[in-house]
UniProtKB/TrEMBL annotation:
Native species: Adlercreutzia equolifaciens subsp. celatus DSM 18785
Keywords: Lipid-binding
MF (Gene Ontology): lipid binding
Name of this chain's protein: DegV family protein
Domain of life: Bacteria
The keyword Zinc-finger is assigned to this record: no
Pfam families given in the database record: DegV (PF02645)
Signal peptide interval: none
PANTHER family assigned to the protein according to its UniProt record, in alphabetical order: DEGV DOMAIN-CONTAINING PROTEIN DR_1986-RELATED, FATTY ACID-BINDING PROTEIN TM_1468
Length: 288
């Protein structure tokens, strides 16, 4: 009996580029963004720049949130209608109810496996690409799901904010702290705990963005002795080509082979604001 076709699926917040999703045949599940009274599909009919412009025009903020179990059920039903099996990756459960809702949808569906990414953005995207390689090697959906359940412990996500205005506006940081941070040119580093998926404040950087990112890249890579240099993501919420290229050159000089530059989804970007940039990679062995 032939093994069922395996489909790798992921929330749109995994931030793989459209080209990567097409090349690796990843099915995307778009989050919804409510902005100025209208419902949008993340990165389909709205972009982060529209959200940033709205905030600076009149302090408009989007409403973001995980989709309902019924929406996930419909997504999974469409993918499995021909007998295919699905491995789906969610935005980390510490950040969203997406995993809970997707798990509820899949509970009574045969051949649907749901993975808690315990990360965000391309920290989950790295796990998705690893699962694609397993699929391409001929592994079954059940075996991929078993292997993928622990990938988060090897995936490392962090980033540096360029402004704290959006955190303050969303109630995630006191307004006074954001104001003083701007006056002092403070740019906080944010780390994602790859065991729980929760975010925490890391090193506080001061200075111009170019110099801050140079120190951030050096600090981040120095923490891990066994980084997988086959691939690394530079994911940002809108930086100049000059800055993105400078970070890319730093990584090339350190021996990284495939350096993917991607733009964060609206869901991710709306919380961190413009100018945020992170490097995201895997290690050979699990490490915090």
């Amino acid at each position: 009996m032939a093994m069922p076709n395996v489909i790798i699926s992921a929330d749109s917040t995994c931030d793989l580029s459209p080209e990567q999703r097409e090349r690796h045949q990843v099915r995307s599940f778009p989050f919804h963004i409510e902005f100025r009274g209208r419902d949008h599909l993340d990165n389909i009919d709205i972009t982060p720049q529209v959200l940033f412009d709205g905030f600076y025009e009149d302090k408009s903020l989007p409403q973001t949130g995980a989709c309902s179990p019924e929406a996930y059920r419909q997504h999974f039903a469409e993918l499995t209608a021909d007998g295919s099996q699905v491995v789906h990756f969610n935005l980390g459960s510490a950040l969203s109810s997406a995993y809970e809702n997707a798990s509820a949808a899949a509970a009574d569906m045969e051949g649907v496996y749901v993975i808690d990414g315990k990360s965000l953005s391309t920290g989950v995207g790295l796990q998705v690409l690893a699962a694609c390689r397993m699929r391409d090697a001929g592994m079954s959906a059940a075996d991929i799901a078993r292997e993928a359940a622990d990938l988060h412990s090897r995936s490392h996500a962090s980033f540096v904010l360029d402004t704290m205005e959006f955190l303050a506006a969303g109630g995630r940081c006191p307004t006074l702290v954001a104001y003083l941070g701007g006056k002092l040119s403070c740019r906080p580093g944010i780390l994602v705990d790859n065991q729980s998926g929760a975010m925490k404040v890391g090193k506080l950087y001061r200075g111009k963005q170019e110099k801050v990112l140079e120190r951030y890249v050096s600090d981040t890579l120095a923490r891990y002795p066994d980084i997988v240099k086959d691939e690394i993501f530079v994911t940002h919420s809108g930086v100049s080509d000059e800055i993105a290229d400078a970070v890319r050159r730093m990584l090339e000089e350190r021996g990284f082979q495939n350096i993917y530059t991607t733009t964060a989804s609206c869901t991710i970007s709306s919380h961190c604001g413009p100018g945020t940039l992170g490097i995201l990679f895997m290690t050979e062995t699990p490490s915090a």
